[in-house]
What does this fold into?
Amino acid sequence: MTVQASSEAGGPALAGLGPRPKIRAVGTERVFGRGAKAVHALGPLDLTVGDGEFVCVVGPSGCGKSTFLRIVAGLVRPTGGTVEVRAGSPNPAAMIFQDYGIYPWKTVEANVRFGLDVRGVPRKEARERARMWLERMGLGEFAYAYPRQLSGGMRQRVSIARALAVEPEILLMDEPFAALDAQLRTILQDELLAICQAERRTVLFVTHSLEEAIVLGDRVVVMSARPGRILAERVPPFPRPRSAEVRESAEFAAFRGELWTLLRGEVETGAPGAPGAATTTAWDGVARPPAAAKGA
It folds into this structure.
């Protein structure tokens, strides 16, 4: 029932997996509450993520996707099993949320610099790194603006810049683009992918959008309804970059259909009216009440 951080050098490779994975979850479970009111939210779940791999996780609402991210981040302890994070630093991961998670009373630069300040990075170096990432994210001229003065897409860029400024080995992303319009989402997907490939970041990315998972992922992991387990793993058979032409192709649609076939029964299991279900179900970032979902 532990989350372990191990050094880059220590420990043997896993049989059949080559170099040791960056993240390894074995029998990971999470139960909230006790007794009759206990909710088995996750697992047992087994998953490995390789160094520099971009893994997208899809599954029904309430299946424990976000809980698993928080376990990997060390924000939540697993009830059972283990999660091992292999890293060369004591704070290897940074997390990016759907709601931006930036401070409204701080300037854009101060928000990006925040993680560096907490880690005790000298102020001059922290400012230089913050400015560098603001420039890379197209926000250089907004360094002294406040979040309320920015659009939603710009605020999410600030959140991404803050995470990358601390030079994490692992990015944990919880539906970061779900609240954005389709055009802006596509732009930020492309920007994120370019940065992560250039910087060779390991990414664990939770999404409700099958298209987003296929576009971004080196591998797509499909989870079951609560308690979330791994149903299947698929590798998108498309070269990068996955352009608009690829996204509009019959092969892309067929692959998306394959993933939906795997998921449909699980989504229906977690749909309104099913035992233990939430009051709404969500797919592709859209929450639908029972009547709307039925006719969709």
Summary: Confidence is low (pLDDT under 50) at residues 9-18, 272-296. The radius of gyration is 19 Å. The first strand starts at residue 2 and ends at 6. Residues 53-79+168-295 form a domain with the Rossmann fold fold (CATH 3.40.50.300).
